[in-house]
Amino acid sequence: xxxxxxxxxxxxxxxxxxxxxxxxxxxxxxxxxxxxxxxxxxxxxxxxxxxxxxxxxxxxxxxxxxxxxxxxxxxxxxxxxxxxxxxxxxxxxxxxxxxxxxxxxxxxxxxxxxxxxxxxxxxxxxxxxxxxxxxxxxxxxxxxxxxxxxxxxxxxxxxxxxxxxxxxxxxxxxxxxxxxxxxxxxxxxxxxxxxxxxxxxxxxxxxxxxxxxxxxxxxxxxxxxxxxxxxxxxxxxxxxxxxxxxxxxxxxxxxxxxxxxxxxxxxxxxxxxxxxxxxxxxxxxxxxxxxxxxxxxxxxxxxxxx
Length: 306
Fold this sequence. Notes:
Layout: E1 9-15, E2 27-30, E3 35-36, E4 39-46, E5 59-73, H1 80-87, E6 95-97, E7 105-111, E8 118-134, E9 141-148, E10 150-154, E11 162-163, E12 177-181, E13 184-185, E14 189-197, E15 201-203, E16 212-215, E17 220-228, H2 233-239, E18 244-251, E19 257-269, E20 281-288, E21 299-303
Parallel strand pairs: 2-11
Antiparallel strand pairs: 1-2, 1-7, 3-5, 4-5, 5-9, 6-21, 7-8, 8-9, 8-10, 8-14, 12-13, 12-18, 14-17, 15-16, 17-20, 18-19, 19-20, 19-21
């Protein structure tokens, strides 16, 4: 009997035209990933009946919930559909901004090395949060947190399925590109953590084991900018509640580029802690707000290599 290996685990996605409905004759896109916890979970419902002998008489499974993370190394063009879904926006002339448009996908896990290959198919998947980490001497890591509707475990592909080839780009790293703070280059950043939250919440109803389409909250963009402590200038922006901006430009070895802009940010914490000898850093947590001039709280611009 063959035991499944992570090195042969494949992940695919396809956009749904109707929420929770697996498309017929789908064309699957590869979902490049470094790991996933996407799974089915159920609440447990235990009978409260008192029998006199301390025994539990009954236990049932509750509502079915699909959720989990997909961790990735950010690659140019490989996640553009998913970035759209995370921001609820639409690419327009290579520019993506936060918006109100919801998108759902069917995501399929393929365990091809089993004696009989298996497909775990998750329908009604939406991006609840997007987390991005840019830190020294590392690839740019991204985590998509997913909320879905239901699962189908099968040994058969969807009839008429085709699969697109891998995009073929390489991951972004942290040492090619730049970061601007307040419109000026800043060379002392030790990390930039960015989080996009959509506030999806499952909506269950009587007579159905799975959720209706979840409710959605506001577009909340937060993060942490950590720098070496070299002066009071950034710290004073927190102290004085001074608005600023953050722009991170990522470039892969081929010259493809993403520019991530947060045109209006406020720092809501920051302190130059010292835990021992060595360089002192200051971690500034921030929230990105709607900017009247730019008409968004976040923008991603993509530029193909020349």
